[in-house]
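Reopening closed ticket. The problem is back. First fold of the pair:
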Amino acid sequence: MRKALLASLVAAAIAAPAMARADVLLTPYAGVNFNGSTVDHRAVVGGSVTFIGSSGFGLEVDLGFIPDFFAPRDLDTDVLGTNNVTTVMGSLVFAGRLGGVQPYLAAGAGLIRTQLGDFGELFDAAASNLGVNVGGGLRLGGGRVALQSDVRYFRNLTGTDEPLLEATLDDFSFWRGTLGISLRF
């Protein structure tokens, strides 16, 4: 037990200087979802907070929201009531640097929350499932502000117990493309 504690303290002491040099990136974004279970392209809004150490490895927390995900564009969205997809993902990030361009790869897991309908007692189906994401992008600019483009693939790993959503969420997946402004702290 003492050896494990000592090894943990040594590892933390070695990692502390690298973490002290970490960049913190706050990135609000907007974009579009496409392919997979997507009925029609819909606007995506969200943001991420990324911590990247001097080695290029880091962690990211991403929150995305897609309103009217399940409604075709030619359908009045009031017919389906509230329908949307919200993603909350934690990802490992690896970023390189090529001058003012920073390519990166990200992969992680988290929550994919789907909601279809909000008609009180008559019909209300919502599910929160474990999901994964994988993708990457580019940051352009080396200063405090950079332009970031990102493409990610999202997929449910678990099914739902909600019978009204079971057919919709079997093999539920989609792609998301975003463009945002990264603020470096």
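Second fold of the pair, where the issue appears:
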Amino acid sequence: MRSLDDKTIVDSWNKNALQWTRAVRAGQIESRTLLTNKAIVESILSHNPDSVLDIGCGEGWLIRELAPSVSRLAGIDAVPDLISQAEAAGGGDFFVASYGELSDLSLGNLFDLVVCNFSLLGNESVDELFRSIPSLLKPAGVFMIQTLHPVVACGDLPYVDGWREGSWSGFGDEFVEPAPWYFRTLDSWAALFSASGFQLAGMREPIYPDTGQPASVIFTLIMN
């Protein structure tokens, strides 16, 4: 039985980087094309940022989407093949780095907004990332997170924090070894925000029109 931990997440994405790039660019992920892509773009642009840092940027779609409206854009991801794809498509500056290496990067000036769009999948790595975010933001900066909605993503399992098996259900046969992910309740998210020096300034829940269920939750945080 394989380990469920932060390292296994990165290992999985290294093995599925090109498959993921093709799926994103072909619009094969229904929840994203229907709701969540538009929701995060709208939420970011509502703050009129001049600079945005996308942490866990993947193949860079969000950077490219923001490029016409935001003058300075940067993306970070731990998977070299994803960053190569992002660089080839353009739109901003891209860096290979794990969450633990953020403080060692030279990113220039601070950012108006830092975003993590479905990229907070781990446990210790997420705690480590939260400790680094204040050093990346301008004094009035915004930290925005879109993630699976805990109430829906919990499924039939107990509503408690813990590691969950991943799945590529609905994707093609070319995907292998799905990444595990660490489930957090809403209370746990709130506790993490508070412990890291953030306060919740807003919360948005994109809703599927056909089922009335939330596709995700978007947290907007500001520093205390």
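Update: turned out to be a display glitch only; the data is intact. DSSP finds seven helices and nine strands in the chain. Residues 6-223 form a domain with the Rossmann fold fold (CATH 3.40.50.150). Please close again.
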